[in-house]
Amino acid sequence: MDSHDLRRAGYQDVPDEAGGRAGRSWWDANAREYVEEHGDFLGEDDFCWGPEGLREVDAQLLGPTQSLVGRRVLEVGAGAAQCGRWLASRGVDVVSTDVSARMLAEGAAMNRRTGRAVPLVQADARALPFEDSSVDVAFSAYGAIPFVPDAIAVHTEVARVLRPGGRWVFSVTHPVRWAFPDDPSVRGLTATRSYFDRRPYAETDETGVVTYAEYHRTVGDHVRDVVAAGLTLVDLVEPEWPASNGETWGGWSPVRGTVLPGTAIFVCRA
Ligand SMILES: C[S@@+](CC[C@H](N)C(=O)[O-])C[C@H]1O[C@@H](n2cnc3c(N)ncnc32)[C@H](O)[C@@H]1O
Fold first, then answer.
1. Per-residue pLDDT band at 127 (split at 50, 70, 90)
2. Nearest in space to 98 (alpha carbons), one of 69, 119, 115
3. Are 96 and 86 in contact (CB under 8 A)?
4. 3, pLDDT greater than 70
5. Contacts of 151 (CB under 8 A, 6+ apart)
6. DSSP secondary structure string for all residues of 171-202
7. Which ligand 1 atom sits closest to the C-alpha of 79?
8. Contact 171/140 with Cβ under 8 angstroms?
9. What is the pTM of this model?
10. Ligand 1 pocket test: which of 21, 26, 27 has the largest number of ligand atoms within 8 Å of its C-beta?
11. Domains of the chain with CATH codes
12. Which of 56, 100, 210 to mutate to test the pocket of ligand 1 (most atoms within 8 A of CB)?
């Protein structure tokens, strides 16, 4: 790909502030469409870590779910808070946060439909409205981190609100995937970009305003970010694509999932 193609495809430098701001406006504008497209796969009251379909009921990455009862759990970049709702349905004291009012409105509608009222709080993950050391476990399934230029600010905030020894688990697109086209077919199996090219995937409108930005970090970048925030990395989980999952989600698909990793889940301790 030449630089013109990359620009058209959207890999381009954008001002950090504009990229971070787009994280809210894009999700506000696309909340309904996103839930319509992925709602069936995610469920309204289910905890899914990513397109492979790994569910917390099986993975127990937050620890045994029963052990969370009586502890304070925080969901970051919750979207419609399907994960938080699943925990609440098991008696866990959880609060779900997201920067997008429209995603939280989708969550409020799900609260009404399911009869499970998980508390919803609007907050940027880089400025959490919670006291220091007030949370036992924090998590995010593909929330916030991919959409901010400064992921370290998210980890630092999470480290601040976590009690010493508390757990922080977050899933993101597997960094290796960024070297491949976002194509669920065999065309998505040939690397066309450098894994080391950190330019975000960004979309701009006709006036040049950044409307969407998604940030690539290598595995090492993620490790350095959590360590710089004072956290300890305990595990890195790379879910395999199960034969039972025939779902295509954007560039994720069974064709690619059997060959390439799609999701990385970082398990950290404060
Ligand atoms: C892919 S969704 C993940 C939510 C949910 N787990 C799901 O799978 O639908 C990404 C979420 O991150 C949120 N987000 C983006 N930037 C954020 C930020 N700076 N702080 C908090 N949430 C943010 C978006 O509003 C969106 O709801």
1. very high
2. 119
3. no
4. no
5. 145, 215, 217, 222, 225
6. EEE-GGGGGS-S-SSGGGGS--S-TT--PPEE
7. 27
8. yes
9. 0.95
10. 27
11. 3-269 (3.40.50.150)
12. 100
pLDDT digits (tens, 9 = 90+) for 209-249: 899 999 999 999 999 999 999 999 999 999 999 999 999 98
- Cα–chain center distance at 32: 18
Q: Which atom of ligand 1 is nearest to the CA of 125?
A: 20
User: Which is more confidently placed, 3 or 226?
Assistant: 226
Distances (CA, A) of 245 to 43, 44, 129, 145, 253: 15, 19, 38, 26, 9
What is the total residue count of the chain?
A: 270
Q: How far apart are CA 10 and CA 234, in angstroms?
A: 34
pLDDT tens-place string over residues 173-194: 999 999 999 999 999 999 999 9
Q: Look at residue 6 and tell me whether its pLDDT is greater than 80.
A: no
The one-letter code for the residue type at 207 is T
According to the model, what pLDDT value does residue 197 have?
Answer: 96
pLDDT of residue 208: 83
Residues within a 6 A CB radius of ligand 1: 23, 27, 42, 77-79, 83, 98-100, 103, 124-126, 141-144, 147-148
Atom of ligand 1 nearest to the CA of 20: 19
